[in-house]
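SAMPLE LOG
Freezer: B-3
Tube label: C17
Construct: single chain, 148 aa
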Amino acid sequence: MEAAAESTTTAQKAKTPARKANTPKAESSKVDAQPVRGKPKSGRVWKTNKDRFATIKRSLRGKTSSQQLAFRDEIKQIKELSQSIKDTRRRENEEKRLRREENKRRRLENERKNEVVQIIKNPAKLKRMRKKQLRMIEKRDISKLNVV
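STRUCTURE (predicted):
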């Protein structure tokens, strides 16, 4: 009888560590504050969630004046940094836009310079042309062209 009683107590003791072994796993999952994100719809798995500047720093309540002043200075620095980042982005975008426009204008100029021009003096030719040939024809101002 005593041997049977001892075996049940050891079995009960063996069960309790098994339960405790499961609890740290549950606690470790609670430690992760960020929820597990699935695959994004866009398929860009390397992209991360970015915090907006407004959510980065929160105001303090019930703090001493020195802490409040330090906090204000820090907030001011953060705002200046964010403003400078926005300004540089805006400037870069403006420069890119101007460069694109310049390239487009230059490309068009070069195309116009490189064109082979043939003046159609007989309008009856236009009547005889096929549709494909008519699509290829473009009107130009001859006063600007250097045509002999």
